[in-house]
């Protein structure tokens, strides 16, 4: 199409910005354009496409379904171009390729460390970039091609734009510092545990949902949160206060327990989460990614917690 040949990379950024702000003046300022020039470009693009990208209202712009589709693909193109630039920079520093992996805390403390050592020996020339965040923040990066895969909990329903491969099962448990008063007891009940301050995962996160479901199954209310946070480092540090309790996955607890910092309390939750790897649907894994996936499977097999 003629409009594709005339389109420049910078204009893709303009379109994405306009979709995000739904405001001509804000986008014009962000992209260092005049508003009349932006309006003229948008009208010409809509004419070339033969569809309306935005509905014009007094309060701003409302993207149409045509715009949503176009921006979805624009993000993918920009993601691939930015990945290409990162790969070239890595190669200029001596690497022969690049792999970008997203991970949530459960992956950082469990499968990923066990996998990376093996992968580095298998692919010594590959520069592996690891990005830790919530799954909500990582998924758009995966769909845009800015990440090769994500190691995380897998929850139903799975986004149709990704392929999910379950790798292992993880339980969750209540933890305290080894100096906590409850850490010295052989038997602990929920009523007593609720008397202490809790550092809980943020509302809406997978670990928080697992905690709430586990407590509901045994007829217990969720403890009141003194602090809500998703940072494992922060929560582990808060536990050293001596009174605070928290909930963590088995993998995180095992990693921190090796440092002699935590004690698992005998409070049953009975919930297990499926941990696995997510990648983009409709694309075949590159040899670099396929080797990484193989290493993840080997790490899960060695841990002996494969899902049924």
UniProtKB/TrEMBL annotation:
Gene3D superfamilies: 3.40.190.290, Winged helix-like DNA-binding domain superfamily/Winged helix DNA-binding domain. PROSITE patterns: HTH_LYSR (PS50931). Pfam families: HTH_1, LysR_substrate. GO terms for molecular function: DNA binding; DNA-binding transcription factor activity. It comes from the Bacteria. Keywords: DNA-binding, Transcription, Transcription regulation. One of its GO terms (cellular component) is cytosol. Belongs to the LysR transcriptional regulatory family. This is DNA-binding transcriptional LysR family regulator. It comes from Pigmentiphaga kullae.
